[in-house]
Amino acid sequence: MDDHELLRLLREDPSVGMDMLMKKYTSLLYSVARGRLAGTKCHSSDVEDCVADVFAKFYTELEHYDESRSSIGAYLAVMARNHAIDIAKMRSRGGENLSIDDESLEIPQPLPDVGEAELRREVMRAVMELDEPDRSILFRKYYYGEPSKTIAKRLGLSVSNVDTRAHRAIERLRKRFGGKINENKT
Amino acid sequence: MKIRLDEIFDGATGDEIAVLVADNPAMPVSGKVAASIKRRVQKRLFRGKERAVYPRVRVALLSAALVALLTLSVFGVARLLDKDEPQKRNNAGGGIHSLSELLGRDDFDGILWGDETPRSDKEEISDESGRGDEISGIPEPDGVVEWNGINLDVMLMSAIESSEGVKVLAVTVSSTNSGSLADFVYNGRRYGSVIAEYRECLDRAGELTTLRKFAKLCESRDDIETDAILDKLTAEVGEELIKKYFDSDKGEFDIVGIDEALSSAETELGMLEDEIENIEKMYYSANLPDLSLLAEKKGYYVVENAGVRVVFLECDKAEAFAADICSLYSEKILSDSFFRLASQADLGIEDTDEPDVMPGGVVTQISQGYIPDDVTTPIFDDKVDEAVE
């Protein structure tokens, strides 16, 4: 089922539409949220809450979604990542649950710091220029938060090969951006 | 400024994410995680102004509980028929009064459920948590303590001992079932074989995902040496799969065929997860005592459906509960039974759900597919009929 058909269903038969939406995108959003929340002070239930918040927000503000600007999957993935980042921040401060109306669920506006935004775009372009499977390795490692063992299984590589390729890819990025890539995760 | 490694995708556009996600499908989540997320979504959509938009999931089982308590009081039935006279509820006597108030409320504050564990006790996210391997995490009745002649889990005993004032416990009874779960047969299917089938299907889905990944890679890049990839793939997914989806004459993969097989494997996984859940439910509900004996005693409210049996009782009546159980059932039955705090998930209950029941106990809405829409509470059918007459 394509995005257009899914949107039609969501508008005309919300119950079936939501079922289809969740069936199609739960795995993606779970991976995105979990990737960002793993290693933080969050729990499994936070990941599920994050994903549920995103689905609910998407549905209740369906009129804000512009089909011509991005696919539903990409739109939801961006929402999930932003919300996960805020949940992680909240948890690290010892805070309670975020509301569904929290700003983190808005699609991000351009960052106020033009230099920083530009650097992020440049890094992203460089990542997209990486050869496969290096690009996929980085995506799975730093976007989905998958361990090397899982990545190796998914891509048909050995674990050591995954680690070596990841290391070399990061070194290439670091060399290109003059040390502006930090070794540490959050 | 510096960009951390976990931020390197923060500058991605929607199009870039779409490409990356298409090339790297996410690992499927287990049926349990998907169901839990679905419940959370429904819960959110029920709230506030969204209530009217999304079709509501009613709580058949809790409705049944409401019917059950109403059967114990003519005033309760009167209230059901005439909602303008809620004060009549207070005419119910003794312990029923406070319990019925709690069960009649929409938010169910005051009922202690089994899933109300402190956050600090919950599982931290680890690399593989929440994935398909949950299937091996079958709940075993461990942490059993003998208390006043019955088998309780430690959490339930702790809840009983630490209670203050009126608190209603949602207690469920399961079978300690000495037979092996792996050898348990339901509908002609042995649990261990279904699990093996599930794992095989999971592996097949993994192999197809790997195959698809490389097929897409070969399709998008001219400079890839297909032979080298085929060698690697053969080692990873086996020759049979390659033969099936690689046309050596054209030097192309059948991506449409792979997608269809992957989709079919995912559907099969979902069906197997449902079957596994069903067999587990049957295993743990086998040889349970007939709780209608208990339901006939004043002060207990029993809900039964699809192998799940929950007794609502006031915490300070727990001692009497133990004594009643022991007087009603044989030692053999009790030794095979195991009492624990019921979880809302067991019953498909969300704390924002409202009872929706017709006089006579007919459940008018399906709750998350657990219950047929014409089901009534079997234990209380007779009493409902009497009360309505």
Draw up the topology in text.
The complex is a heterodimer of chains A (186) and B (389).
Chain A: H1 3-12, H2 14-37, H3 44-60, H4 72-92, H5 114-129, H6 134-142, H7 148-155, H8 159-176, E1 181-182
Chain B: E1 3-4, H1 14-23, H2 31-46, H3 60-71, H4 74-81, H5 94-104, E2 111-112, E3 144-147, E4 150-153, H6 154-161, E5 168-175, E6 185-186, E7 189-190, H7 191-220, H8 226-237, H9 239-245, E8 246-247, E9 252-253, H10 255-285, H11 292-295, E10 301-305, E11 308-314, H12 318-328, H13 331-335, E12 337-341, H14 344-347, H15 381-388
Helix pairs in contact in B: 3-4, 3-5, 3-15, 7-8, 7-10, 8-9
Description:
The complex is a heterodimer of chains A (186) and B (389). Chain A is an all-alpha fold. Chain A has helices spanning 3-12, 14-37, 44-60, 72-92, 114-129, 134-142, 148-155, 159-176; one strand spanning 181-182. In chain A, helix 6 packs across helix 8. Chain A is globular. The model of chain A is unreliable at 97-114 (pLDDT under 50). With 389 residues, chain B is an alpha+beta fold. Chain B contains 15 helices and twelve strands. In chain B, helix 3 (60-71) crosses helix 4, helix 3 (60-71) crosses helix 15 (381-388) and helix 8 crosses helix 9. The longest helix of chain B has 31 residues, at 255-285. The radius of gyration of chain B is 26 Å and the shape is elongated. Residues 48-102, 104-108, 116-141 and 349-389 of chain B have low confidence and may be disordered. Strand 1 of chain A pairs parallel with strand 1 (3-4) of chain B, so a sheet runs across the interface.
